[in-house]
Amino acid sequence: MDIIYIHELEIETVIGIYDWERKQKQIVSIDLEMATDIRSSAEIDSIERALDYKAIAKRLIDFVEGSKFFLVETLAEQISHLVLSEFDVPWLKLRLGKPGAVRGSRDVGVIIERGKKES
Predict the structure, then answer these.
(1) Mind listing the pLDDT tens digit for each residue in 67-115?
(2) Is residue 98 annotated as part of the catalytic site, yes or no?
(3) What are the beta bridge partners of residue 111?
(4) Domain of residue 72, residue span
């Protein structure tokens, strides 16, 4: 198993439970690891057989910018479902952070793994 990753993708969205959070966009930070097999694309040196991380990042930006969830947990679940179903990824690990949510910490958030991890 190989892993393609996107690290520290920052996207503005409406997220949170407080009234002020519903009126103002905040930044969320995404780290995403996705299982794949890179041998086929590496063999022919072509994007056609590769997991296209640019397309995935673009789709995440579109989805997250348009979302209005109360909980980071819900957003994380929705992102994982989107990636697993739309990009034929068998397994992923997602870290979703909300910078500045707790005074004194860089960020808070969730880390989830979904799908089936193969060796």
Answers:
(1) 999 999 999 999 999 999 999 899 999 999 999 888 888 999 999 999 9
(2) yes
(3) 95
(4) 2-115
